[in-house]
Amino acid sequence: MSGIDTSELAINLDQLFLVLMGAIVYLMQMGFGFLEAGAVRSKNVTNILMKNILDSAIGAFWGLLTIGLMHLHTELTQTLHRLLQLHADNLPRETIGHVVFPVCVLRFIAYIVYCILLTTIVYPIASHWVWDSKGWLNAEAPWDNVNFLDFAGSSVVHCLGGTAAFFGALAVGPRKDLYNTVTERNERIKGHSVPLAVLGGFILIFGFFAFNGGSQLTITAPGDGEVVAKAIKNTVLGGLSSGLVAIAINYVLHDRKFSLLLCINANLTGMVAMCAGCNAVEDWSAIVIGIIAGPTFLAWSTLIFKVGIDDPLDAVAVHFGGGLWGIIAAPIFHKEVGILYNWGQPGWPTLPVEHNRR
Fold first, then answer.
1. Which is more confidently placed, 217 or 244?
2. What is the pLDDT of residues 105-137, one digit of tens each?
3. CB contact at 8 A, 319 and 336
4. Residue 97: which pLDDT band, with cuts at 50, 70 and 90?
5. How many angstroms separate the first and last alpha carbons of the chain?
């Protein structure tokens, strides 16, 4: 019996790690389906679930065809990770479309085209810029000795998805019932199922452990386990602190009432904000990032509603608002090169970047 080739074993373990993380991330598709189904009226449920199935199918099919556009120079292990993460990117960016697209053949076809264009053109370009070894934000930026910092997708996945959700909702317009003729003002339309929304929220929170922890890509190199554990721990700290602060503020400002959907979305916003730097911030920094993410979610949610944009699931507030704060926060709180730890270095010009340690 021949001896074990440790290098081959390491490769297999790394790929198994990515497959397992990717499988858990894929559960987020189900989480979004449940959350969306519970957060809207019953008449929208079939439409929403149908489009979740299409998201999965279109994301997988077109992802396989276009994965080379994302990472022309990466190894199999990295490519496998980004392909699996493509499933997660499908979720936030189509959240608005799930709810506001009525069952109409022409609009249904438009939705499919919309998904294909995002999957084949928009996401591969953004992913290549930030995560590929030859991407201009990663390794070939025009400035000296810096590169973009986004460990798990605050910008590539969530800001991109939130932007798509914003323009999707803007193009489709608000639902007819958003305007209350009695009070003569817009009022939020409540969902129909609390258990479905809660189940979806728990699945998404669980999925974020793999979404952020799995972004380490490997598990066999020295220090990999520590980084994965830190990423998951910081994700939990950021999410929970964001949710607690948001519901406390909402309780004070809104007649001492709690909102279940707000609590879920605020938790998710904190986890979104942690994506960029979850591997490289201290515990206290994760809590601070989450504390700020809570009111950030409330501010974006209120702003989007006040300007008359119908965002039933607060997708813009969660993904764009949380993602934007995440890519600002990571270079501030980074434990090695963050602004808080390097006061002698130039500050604001380096906010979106990390010093290149090569």
1. 244
2. 456 777 778 777 887 788 888 888 888 777 888
3. no
4. very low
5. 42
Tell me if 134 sits within 8 A of 206, measured CB to CB.
no
Instruction: Please give the radius of gyration of the chain, using alpha carbons only, rounded to the nearest integer.
Output: 20
DSSP string, 110-130: HHHHHHHHIIIIIHHHHHHHH
Which two tokens mark 6?
A: 């440790």
Query: Taking the C-alpha atoms of 319, 320, 324 and 327 in order, what is their torsion angle to the nearest 10 degrees?
Result: 40
More confident residue, 161 or 179: 161
State the pTM of this model: 0.86
Q: Cα(276)–Cα(323) distance, rounded to whole angstroms? A: 8
**β partners of residue 353:** 148
> Which phi and psi (to 5°) does residue 267 adopt?
-60, -45
Residue (of 95, 221, 252) closest to 158 by Cα position: 95
Q: Quick one: residue 256, left, alpha or beta (phi over 0 = left, psi -120 to 50 = alpha)?
A: left
Sign of CA dihedral 152, 157, 160, 165: negative
Across 113-132, b (16+ Cβ under 10 Å) vs e yields ebbeebbbeebbebbbbbbb
